[in-house]
């Protein structure tokens, strides 16, 4: 262990405070300093206690802190002490999580931090006394070797020195530091159980659903009539199916505040219990999945029963892969010390987590900010290299465990993307889940919450992309690291013992791997521009592969390959045709239609199609022969090998064969330009853009194929397995205004059916609408500001500042462009922070959306700027959200996809199509304001050109006033003051 680490007991403390910085000096003096003054002092003072060092460094205009951090970040200590407890990463958030009194928190500045330190160290000492000392000591020694700055204080607290031998090591019989990191040895094994028989089909009655709801809410609670009606009508989605391929569908709009989550949990749980089956509850985002999970705790308050009955499922890429963790641990000694610190924290968490979910579960969302996002991605099951039954950790694997737990659950909480891919894979016989193809394990009842997002989810799930990143990823999956230092294993190594000695299997595998060199070689993106075609590959960026950075590239000439040649032509066409409005930059995505093709594209496409066929055909043969081995060697294959063969054939089909088939089909479209006047099933286009996984100066280019109407394939995959579906949302229908009431209502329902895909099933959906119980006319105000030029960043910034000041914070600013969001943030942050209104922003603060929302929810006077994701996913009840400001009308993005859809899906009314989308987005944004009866809020649109026809987006009774900025600000202050007086 390093000899000296600073003691946190005497440390100064530093927090941002009202646009300046509050410093508690080591002498106990509380100072308010500017950023420059803090920077000046930092050199001379001991390292301070802070909260979220990377965010503080950014505010101080200092370089990122990295690991080992130079500051005593209390969040790091919190992670060590409470490894699986998310918390808002601010002094206030930490203080609330540690049980401090609200009033003390409000008054406190930097002097709050020593209190937090005492509480955390008190808990750590308690853990050391209560039987955890072995592991704590082992982790502390390992962290000390890596230079973790908290080592000295933690060692003192757990009295580590009394456990060390004379040579400074832990006694031989004690848990050693290296063992502590090998968490897979300490985790419990799951056990196989008999397969669950298929569920029965007993119906449930509306009266029973209402009664179940009362039981969940408790006899003392007031049952809202809308909620009871919702539970009642939802039972129709659980009626026995009368015709194959014709599920019962209920389309239910339930206004905000209806309580629809418990409203559907009541009939769903009743049906699951009565029929010994599972109901899948699906929502749009991972964060919303956790919200539903919280609600199910009211149904099953006992934690053991809850764990048995409710399982949250996500895609495999979200979970910790123990094999990846093992490989990371084994190589950590030769890697930077920060990686060891991250792995120690992950190991602590792995021993405490409920389900191993790295993203949005019980690992704090800010973990990656502190310990490296690359380290998190490195241990997730992201590369599709799972070796299933051949993995030594298979029976402790978090992914496999969650799949098995779901087999026996009553409620499985999933997301739309997972449900769609699972259903599609099950239909094609290539599911992730060993038993999904078995009759008992195919889900038959679904609840789709956030149903207005079904089309978006289906659009992503059923689109295809032939791009540089996708094709290069397939090459890596097939060929592995190709001589570079990386864990990428390649197909040969993964199949190894299954094929060796079987020429019938080895030969097609070798042929496919030889042909796979036609996919882009490392460094492809630097050769996208024709002039750079023969440039050797540069090193990959550290963040992509922090755990295992590649070796320097070999200095070899790069052979032309058909994929790279095709990508270069795509880029050429995009550069030539894209409408860039004179603003072309590396950060701007460029799109163009596929047809007409630039010269040579057709031929390059044919060559590529032939090259891809040379990969896919032997892979298909390999997959079929592996499958045949299952039958031929049925009497000799052991269970593990059988399981592996099944898993590998599924992986081959999912990861390679189906993708290659899709690409070959897309290339065939090169020869099929769309017929003028016809309605295409698919839209093909080219896009050139910089993607997340790329360096700053690189771009990816791809040919994209989307369904014109993505709800068609959605209906196609759900029609057979689903026996009943409830599709619900607070905003299913558009309210146009004008027209006769019945015409309008019918049109709105038809549009809702088209948006959810309900119109593609044989029988019509049962429609239901439950009004919000909120009195919007009393609880809200809405304004359109008429004297702000929102195309001017200066005016827009001034407007946001004035409005946030008028509400005293608690404002959510919504933007349609990231550049404007950043511009406004830069201009208004200093003033607002000076006035005690902390401001956070998506795409500015290096935190994920859920963390930002957690902070916003915790800091009552904070403001938050965000884009689409904030519009749809923010659930902030109470005073923390009292103002929503939209910079402009959220019209749909005018891209090629939208152009085609408004032509072909608008029923001849493209303008009305745009209006509908904008109105629904406004309704969604408005819905963020009022989450419970006591909430009050104001909605402001900074777009003076807002057409009156869009105003029907707002709930009945909300009068929308058009007035100037100053008057709007005065009215906001008066309204919120009046409401505060009444509450
Ligand atoms: S079974 Fe697969 S996902 Fe699970 S630990 Fe092993 S390799 Fe990772």
TrEMBL record:
Family as reported in the entry's similarity comment: Belongs to the helicase family. DinG subfamily.
GO MF annotations in UniProt: ATP binding; DNA helicase activity; hydrolase activity, acting on acid anhydrides, in phosphorus-containing anhydrides; nucleic acid binding
GO terms of biological process kind: nucleobase-containing compound metabolic process
Residues annotated as domain Helicase ATP-binding: 213-498
PANTHER family: DNA REPAIR DEAD HELICASE RAD3/XP-D SUBFAMILY MEMBER (PTHR11472), REGULATOR OF TELOMERE ELONGATION HELICASE 1 (PTHR11472:SF34)
This protein's name: DNA helicase
Ranges in a coiled coil: none
Listed PROSITE patterns: HELICASE_ATP_BIND_2
InterPro entries: ATP-dep_Helicase_C, DinG/Rad3-like, Helic_SF1/SF2_ATP-bd_DinG/Rad3, P-loop_NTPase
Lineage: superkingdom: Bacteria
Matches recorded under SMART domains: HELICc2
Keywords on record: ATP-binding, Helicase, Hydrolase, Nucleotide-binding
């Amino acid at each position: 262990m390093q000899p000296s680490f600073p003691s946190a007991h005497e440390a100064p403390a530093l927090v941002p405070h009202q646009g300046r910085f509050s410093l508690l000096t080591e002498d106990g003096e509380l100072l308010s300093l500017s950023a420059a003054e803090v920077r000046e002092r930092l050199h001379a003072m001991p390292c301070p206690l802070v909260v979220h060092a990377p965010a503080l460094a950014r505010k101080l205009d200092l370089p990122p802190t990295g690991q080992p951090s130079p500051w005593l970040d209390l969040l790091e200590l919190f992670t060590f002490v409470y490894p699986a407890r998310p918390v808002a990463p601010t002094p206030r958030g930490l203080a609330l999580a540690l049980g401090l009194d609200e009033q003390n928190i409000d008054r406190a500045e930097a002097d709050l931090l020593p209190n937090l330190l005492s509480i955390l160290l008190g808990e750590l000492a308690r853990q050391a006394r209560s039987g955890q000392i072995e592991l704590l000591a082992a982790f502390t020694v390992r962290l000390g070797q890596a230079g973790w700055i908290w080592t000295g204080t933690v060692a003192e607290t757990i009295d580590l020195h009394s456990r060390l031998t004379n040579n400074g090591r832990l006694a031989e019989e004690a848990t050693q530091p290296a063992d502590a990191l090998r968490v897979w040895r300490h985790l419990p094994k799951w056990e196989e159980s008999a397969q669950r028989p298929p569920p029965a089909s007993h119906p449930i009655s509306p009266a029973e659903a209402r009664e179940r709801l009362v039981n969940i809410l408790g006899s003392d609670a007031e049952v809202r009539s809308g909620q009871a009606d919702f539970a009642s009508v939802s039972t129709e989605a659980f009626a026995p199916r009368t015709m194959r391929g014709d599920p019962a569908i209920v389309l239910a709009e339930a206004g905000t505040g209806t309580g629809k989550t418990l409203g559907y949990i009541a009939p769903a749980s009743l049906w699951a219990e009565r029929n010994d089956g599972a109901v899948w509850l699906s929502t749009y985002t991972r964060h919303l999945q956790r919200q539903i999970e919280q609600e199910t705790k009211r149904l099953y308050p006992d934690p053991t029963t809850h764990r048995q009955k409710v399982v949250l499922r996500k895609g495999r890429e979200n979970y910790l892969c123990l094999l990846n963790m093992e490989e990371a641990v084994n190589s950590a000694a030769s890697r930077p010390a920060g990686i060891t610190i991250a792995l120690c924290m992950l190991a602590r968490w792995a021993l405490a987590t409920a389900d191993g979910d790295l993203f949005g579960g019980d690992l704090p969302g800010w973990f990656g900010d502190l310990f490296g996002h690359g380290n998190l991605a490195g241990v997730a099951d992201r590369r599709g290299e799972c070796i299933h039954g051949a993995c030594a950790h298979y029976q402790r694997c978090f992914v496999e465990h969650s799949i098995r737990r779901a087999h026996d659950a009553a409620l499985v909480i999933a997301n739309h993307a997972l449900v769609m891919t699972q259903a599609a894979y099950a239909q094609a016989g290539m599911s992730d889940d060993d038993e999904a193809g078995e009759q008992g394990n195919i889900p038959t009842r679904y609840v789709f919450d956030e149903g207005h997002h079904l089309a978006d989810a289906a659009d992503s799930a059923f689109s295809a992309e032939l791009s540089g990143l996708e094709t290069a990823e397939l090459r890596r999956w097939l060929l592995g690291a190709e001589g570079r230092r990386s864990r990428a294993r390649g197909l040969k190594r993964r199949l190894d013992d299954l094929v060796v000695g079987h020429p019938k299997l080895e030969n097609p595998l070798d042929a496919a791997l030889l042909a796979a060199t036609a996919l882009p070689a490392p460094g492809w993106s630097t050769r996208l521009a024709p002039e750079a075609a023969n440039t050797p590959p540069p090193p990959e960026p550290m963040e992509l592969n922090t755990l295992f950075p590649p070796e320097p590239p070999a200095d070899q000439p790069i052979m032309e390959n058909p994929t790279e040649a095709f990508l270069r032509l795509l880029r050429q066409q995009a550069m030539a045709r894209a409408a860039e409005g004179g603003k072309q930059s590396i950060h701007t995505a460029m799109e163009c239609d596929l047809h007409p093709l630039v010269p040579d594209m057709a031929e390059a496409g044919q060559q590529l199609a032939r090259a891809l066929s040379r990969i896919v055909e032997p892979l298909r043969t390999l997959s079929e022969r592996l499958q045949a081995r299952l039958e031929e060697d049925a009497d000799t294959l052991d269970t593990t090998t059988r399981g592996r063969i099944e898993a590998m054939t599924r992986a081959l089909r999912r990861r390679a064969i189906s993708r290659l088939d899709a690409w070959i089909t897309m290339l065939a479209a090169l020869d099929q330009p769309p017929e003028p006047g016809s309605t295409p099933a698919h839209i093909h286009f080219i896009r050139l853009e910089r993607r997340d996984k790329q360096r700053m100066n690189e771009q990816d280019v791809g040919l994209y194929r989307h369904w014109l109407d993505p709800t068609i394939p959605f209906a196609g995959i759900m029609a057979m397995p689903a026996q009943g579906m409830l599709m619900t949302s607070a905003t299913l229908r558009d309210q146009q205004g004008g027209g006769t009431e019945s015409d309008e209502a019918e049109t709105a329902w038809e549009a809702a059916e088209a948006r959810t895909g309900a119109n593609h099933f044989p029988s019509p959906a049962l429609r239901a609408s439950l009004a919000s119980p909120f009195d919007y006319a009393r609880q809200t105000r809405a304004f359109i500001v008429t004297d702000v030029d929102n195309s001017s960043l200066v005016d827009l910034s001034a407007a946001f500042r004035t409005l946030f000041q008028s509400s005293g914070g608690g404002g959510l600013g919504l933007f349609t462009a990231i550049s404007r969001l950043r511009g406004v943030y830069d201009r208004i942050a200093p003033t607002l922070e000076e006035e005690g209104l902390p401001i956070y922003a998506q795409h500015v603060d290096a935190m994920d959306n859920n963390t930002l929302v957690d902070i916003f929810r915790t800091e009552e006077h904070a403001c938050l700027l965000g884009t689409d994701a904030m519009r749809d996913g923010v659930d902030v009840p109470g005073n923390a959200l009292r103002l929503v400001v939209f910079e402009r009308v959220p019209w749909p993005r005018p891209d090629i996809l939208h152009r085609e859809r408004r032509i072909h899906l608008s029923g001849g009314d493209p303008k009305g199509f745009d209006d509908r989308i904008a109105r629904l987005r406004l309704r969604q944004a408005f819905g963020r304001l009022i989450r419970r009866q006591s909430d009050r809020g104001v909605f402001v649109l900074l777009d003076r050109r807002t057409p009156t026809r869009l105003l029907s987006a707002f709930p009945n009774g909300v009068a929308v006033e058009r007035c100037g900025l100053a008057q709007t600000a005065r009215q906001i202050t008066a309204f919120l003051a009046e409401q505060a007086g009444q509450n």
